[in-house]
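Researcher: I've been going back and forth with a colleague about how Alpha/beta fold hydrolase might be arranged in three dimensions. Neither of us has a model we trust, so I'd like an independent prediction. The organism is Ornithinimicrobium ciconiae, in case that matters for your notes. Sequence below.
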Amino acid sequence: MRVGIWEPASGDRQAPTVLAVHGITSSHIAWPLVAQAMPDVRIIAPDLRGRGRSRTLPAPYGMPSHADDVAAVLDSVGVEQAVAVGHSMGAFVSLVLADRHPERVSSLVLVDGGMPLLPPPGVAPEDMSMAILGPAAERLQMTFPDHEAYRDHWREHPAFTEWVDLTTAYVDYDLVPAAAGGFHPATCVDALNEDIRELVDGDSLLNALARLRHPTSWLLAPRGLMDEVPPLYPQAAREHWLGEHPQISMAEIEDVNHYTIVMLQGGVDQVVPHVRQALAG
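Model: Here is an independent structure prediction for Alpha/beta fold hydrolase. You can compare it with whatever you and your colleague have in mind.
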């Protein structure tokens, strides 16, 4: 596995640690702004199996595999316990990690993810990847001649109307050579399809929620993957899951979408206080 690590500026080996887990078609390059905002904290951010530079790791995928993988990452860097901060699918991974390896997690910060997704009306579970991810899933099937063409593709994405240095780094890292020439996105299509099915009603997720015993914050974006309303978790979904799990603390992060909640400064400035509260707890 490829793992990004931001060590505390002080060099303090006893500094608190955040395990930052990215989304379903993302990589550890989603987290630099969070790391910059917390220079006193160690940030450990793996590329999950089938993504980024961990893309060639084989199946099985799924939340139990990812959870065991990130527990092994903590082992490899000598960290006994961390606050798990998961964005999108990373929030699901974090929940299952806390269930399968409860001693490794002190608390959970779930960023626009974690609670089971409710399929749109008339959509079969096996069609969820296209129904929920839409262009993000289509992108994985595409080939691009060079990095600039891929940047141009992302510049048309409605969720990325503000382009910053992190956006360029994120997009460039996501492009890898294609066997037939050119470049394609790093995420393995088989990994995406296997993983997203679990986000609806996977046993590991439902069991993790039923046994949830860690302090948990659920941070939500008011707009979705395409900067649209309703968001990934509309009001009915929020009420449903908070009714099922009243011990979870929910907060809406203002004026962000599913991506910019961790990839633009305005979202990071609101998310980081919740992470610091989890570290203090």
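Researcher: What would you highlight for our discussion?
Model: I'd start with this: The mean pLDDT is 95. After that, consider the following. The first helix runs from residue 32 to 37.
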